[in-house]
Every structure is written in C-alpha cells, then in structure tokens.
Amino acid sequence: MKISKIDIYPIKLPLIKPFVIAYDTFLDMPSIIIRVETDNGLVGYGESVPDEHVTGESFYSTIALLKHNIIPKIIGQNPFDIEKIHKIMNATVKNAPAAKAAIDIACYDMMGKATNQPLYNLIGGKYWDFLEIPHVLSIGEPKEMAYEAKEATKKGYTTIKIKVGDKDLCKDIERIALIRQIVGRNVKLRVDANQGWVTSAKALTVLKEIEDCAMDWIEQPILADDIQGHKRIRNQINIPVMIDEGLHGEKEMLEIINSEAADFINIKLMKSGGIYPALRLVHQAKMANIQCQIGSMVESSIASLAGAHLSIAQSNIISNELGGPQMISNDLAQMDYQKNKLYLSEKPGLGVDIDQQKLKELKV
C-alpha cells in the first residue's frame, strides 16, 4: 500500500461568534484539509490549522510548503511507515509542525481503515469511556463572561475554561473572581492567559489575588520561552501551572522536566507535528509524573477527532479542550457531543464522514 495522490483544500471555518484570546481575535478559523489516496483505494483525511503566534506558520505558507515541499516527498510512501514519514518531513523542513500534522493525521486515518480498527486501538486502546469537554469562555466583559459560565453550567458543563491575558490585570482578577462566585465551588475552573501576562512578576500580581478561587491550574501565564519564569511562578503560588505554547517537542519537554517548571502540559497536534510525535511527549511526561491535556487550535471535526482518539487512549491524558467543532457554525462532519461529553464510535480510522458538499462550499 502506497500513497498515490494528495489533494489540498484550503478552507475557512465560520465561527458561531468571535473567539477572543490574549494575542488575537478570530472571526473565522482558516484550516487546510488534505485528502490522501492510496494505490489500493483507501482514502484518509488530515488537517492543518497553523498559527503565526504558536506554530510559526501562516495559512498561505503552509499551503505552499505542503504543495511544493512535503507532499512530493510523501507520494509513494506506505502510511504505516510513520517513523520513516516523519524522518522524511523533518529532513525536508525544520519545524513547521502544523503542516506535518496534516500528513500524520491522514496516515493514521488510513492505518485504521486498512486494519478496520478505530484509531484509538492502534495507540493504546480505549482507556476512557468518554471525554469530558469544558466550556471555553473567550475574553469579554467580566459580567458577560460570568453570565455565559452560569448558562453553561445549566446545560450540564462541569468545567469552565476562562481565557484571560488582558493588559488590565485588575480586569482579569475581576473576571476570575466573579466567575467563581457565580458558578459556585463545585464547578472546575481552568484559567488560560495565552502568554498575556508576559512576565512572572505581572502573573504573580494576578495569581496572588485569586489564589483562593480554587483553580485547577493556570495555563501559559507568561511568554512561551520563559521556562524559568514558570518555575518561579510555580514555586510562589499554590495554583498548579500548565505550559502550553512553551511546549512543542521533546527539547522543550526535557527542559520543563529538568527545571520542574510545570505540573501539567498541554499537547496540541498542531504544535507537535501530529499524533506520532505527540505520543512521544505523552510517554516523556509519564516518566516525569506530569499529567497531560490534549488541546486544540479550534479545529474542525477532522483534527478534533484525531486529538480525541489520542486523548481517550492514554491514562496520563486527564483533560482535553476538544470542543472546537461546537464553536463552528458549519463543520465538515458530525461528532457525538452529548452535553459536556464526547463519545467516539468504533468506526475505522478517525471515524469521520466528511460532507463533500460542505468541503467544496468552504474552500477558498
């Protein structure tokens, strides 16, 4: 079995409402879908959602890189030879993880279809019965965010993720404290600053004010490369620290472990380069007794399902943020969300049924 053809579909996923985080506001989500065929008739799908601020790639650079550099080297390869395929991609271009993730995801989709197994059976089996999905609050006025959080709990959500990172630190303090007051103490709160507080001094100014808000963790409070700054924060507060943008591959993972800079890590397929390198990070984390979250760049059902298969297969992955399709008004396929839970089917591969008409409509 060899890869014989790869088609690229650049699309823009329409969002139900703008998604506001510390470093950007998204009105829609640019995504690159690939359709991969093999010489024996199998078809697999992959997705790339690059982000200039996180992966260092743009929408158009990723399209060009896939078309002119990566795909020509992948044609003729066996999808099962995933170690070899990553070696080829890494030799072709340094970094560019979101571009590589599209190829990786499609290969795993085809592996599952070739063996007639759901993807999770190829990477550890089904450890969890379902995935609990948090409700994510993008940055807004404190009262509006608190109201949305309360409404989410009425719909059955038991975990709220709060996006912060405002230049006005007092506003962030107000957001977190008010949401905790409104939803009560039984709802889990997770706070993500997306590097917005920049320095450990500013982050500690906020965190010491809301230390009694019973947060599960504070995610990426300061600049991604400041691993030592995360260590300083972790040593001075009683709130667990999660690193997201500061973790891409094994080099950063080793630095985080050696520095004891984090209690949790957020692994994203777009940062790591796909499922295969993400699994390596999970195993590194296991050895260091660090628990993991599988994150998302607000991806369609294709990449979201890839993350879900990884998340459901590993005992060390205790959290996820795979609710991207719930934020999209016109997704390419359906996922089995039931209130705050996501269930995976036993269909082979990703288990995704792409609406070909929508794929054509969304293409740009």
Automatic annotation (TrEMBL):
Gene Ontology terms for molecular function: magnesium ion binding; racemase and epimerase activity, acting on amino acids and derivatives
Question: Mandelate racemase/muconate lactonizing enzyme C-terminal domain: which residues?
Answer: 142-240
User: Which cofactor(s) does the record list?
Assistant: Mg(2+)
EC assignment: 5.1.1.-
Would the keyword RNA-binding turn up in this protein's UniProt record? Answer: no
> Mind telling me which Pfam families this protein's record contains?
MR_MLE_C, MR_MLE_N
Give binding positions for Mg(2+): 192, 219, 244
Q: Which UniProt keywords apply?
A: Isomerase, Magnesium, Metal-binding
- Which SUPFAM superfamilies does this entry report, sorted A to Z? Enolase C-terminal domain-like, Enolase N-terminal domain-like
What residues sit in the active site?
163, 268
The UniProt entry, under InterPro entries, shows: Dipeptide_epimerase, Enolase-like_C_sf, Enolase-like_N, Enolase_C-like, Mandelate_racemase_C, Mandelate_racemase_N_dom
Q: Entry cofactor note text?
A: Binds 1 Mg(2+) ion per subunit.
Its GO biological process terms? Answer: peptide metabolic process
Q: Which family does it belong to?
A: Belongs to the mandelate racemase/muconate lactonizing enzyme family.
**What's the name of the protein?**
Dipeptide epimerase
